[in-house]
Amino acid sequence: MSKIEYGSLVIKSGGIQTLVEDWPGRVGYYKYGYAISGAADHYAHRMANLLVGNPITEATLEIAGGLFEAEFKHDTVIAVTGADMNPEINGKAISLWKSIRVNNGDVIKFNVSKGVGFRAYIAFAGGINVPVFFGSKSTCIWGAYGGFQGRALRKGDTLQIGKLQEKQLEKLEGRYIKPRFIPNYENTWKVRMLPGPTAAPDYVTEKGYEKIYSTIFKIDRNSDRSGYRLITPKEIFPQEWARKTGGVAGLHPSNLVDMGYPIPGGLNVTGDMIIILGPDGPCGGGFTIIGTVIYYDVWKVFQAIPAKDYIKFEYVDIDEAEKLRKEQDEIFKEEVVIGGV
Amino acid sequence: MMKSRYSPVLETVPPVEGVRKKIIFRTAGDGWLQEEYGDEQVFDLMDTFRLFTLMDKLQKVQIPGLIEFGNGFRTMTYRYDPKVISARELIKYIIEIEESIGSVEEMSFKSRIVELPIVFEDSVTRAAIEKYKKEIRPDTPNIVNGHNLRYVAMYNGITPEELKEKVLGTEWLLSHQLFWPGGTYQLPIDPRSSIEAPKYNPSRTYTPEGTVGLGGWCLYIYTTESPGGYQLLGRTIPTYQASQRHPAFKDKPFLLMASDRIKYVETTEDKLLEIYKLVHEEASSKYQYKITESVFKVKDWLNFINREDIKAEVREFEKRKREAQKVVKVP
Known about the structure:
heterodimer, A: alpha+beta, Cyclophilin, 8-stranded mixed beta sheet, 6-stranded antiparallel beta sheet, 23 strands, 33% strand, B: alpha+beta, Gyrase A, domain 2, 2 domains, 7-stranded mixed β-barrel, 5-stranded antiparallel beta sheet, 17 strands, 30% helix
């Protein structure tokens, strides 16, 4: 592949929170304490990249909540996937899950979510040029590193995005994702969850799991890329802890001797509240992890709208979870795309 | 007994008397696996030592589909690619490596000694504590004379001077880094320095760079400005530099790594600030970090901690701590 040239995208509004994220985020620096980060909705992110002919690992913009606005300074092809936030170009509505031609001077503008889904993704043909920090272009927002200066985009920023030859752009515009590969967005998100590593019978009772798998959890308003907090009924915690205290690690039964956390998707219980760890979640700590949302489904958690949507866990075992992940990774191939030249 | 469908245990390996504890493998999702030493949640440096050896071995072999791993105090967490390897297959590789590791008692591992100047109750941490008192919790019991150090001394039943001696009198082993880039969880090599502290309640929104704090049994250097919950004792020199301009940070932005031993040396605030200036502003090699390559021999350490006089002093200190904690308020 020839060397990619870059042009400018001028940010007119950063919106609620817009971040540069790639996939699968940082690899190989977990033991040094660097957050994994990466696109919170790995599904929409990968599809957006496929549409514009990028490697699925390339960085996109992750728009949480909406209200992002930016002006293009050269002709290019983009694709928007994820939550529908009524995106417009020069005031005219554009389609999601489709690659679109944009011209020098065009302004793209996002409204807020239509009521389902919380994160939209824009992929740019040729990608985004930010420094690679510990192997990734992803932003860790709470640690303030990676991505665009370790922070969310704001008005006046200039982001470097791919500038391709006209011949290449012609081939990339007007491509669609086959409808059956476009997920349904809901307000109650069913996600499969695998118990462990600190589970039954020593940390949480059997009955506790039965309750967890039959409860619909409301998502707390304090939910972000570090973690999604679930409003946890007392009938689950503290009631169903299998032990009285955390022993040497602390008074509360959620305390334990520091260990590594699975990211993203680990169900971290600090005190009596379940938090589903996000891509920016800490690599480890001294609290139980009672389960993990499987990778196949974990993107759904971060499409849920804080303070509005619900999470419902479904049981799965390790063998099935590994099988599903393999199947999903097979999806992101040129065959799911229609159109183009 | 039939295994519960909510049990995460995929495999257990029985203990070998005098060699190792029981090993338990637990699922941590499709892509993460946890290996645990022993059934009980305990702080046991012997577990951490074994993990260092395991880590060293893991770095030298190629296991297909194993992406990376990181240790806690008594667990190893593996990240793997289920497209290449299943958790069950990965466990077989790990057991093979575990079988090749002998008794922890006979073990030695590479462990650098890093000398770090420290100022107790310095003005920068004092200002952070003042800010907390003003903005977050004015009536918190853990501030005495405008700082946490005297409170921590009271909580351990010792004088402020004795507390400083305990920090300065041992090497602190950096056990793991999981939490914050270049993170620095440290436990004392000398059990007589095993000081304790409860955490802030609620936690702090601001901790200055280089702050040395204590929470539970752990000493921790805040590598960069960040929130936090440990009791502040003082401040040390930079251990993180994002710009990587100073030669000590040329290869990576953090100075310290798991298995390092930190030796604190008391200095003055003027000297400390001068080092900050040399490292961060001038990026000058005029300040050279004092790092010595070394090997840690577990047997020597065991001989030391099992000495009758040492054991007696540890028992005596434990008693003083328990007595003090009956009366000292927790935040």
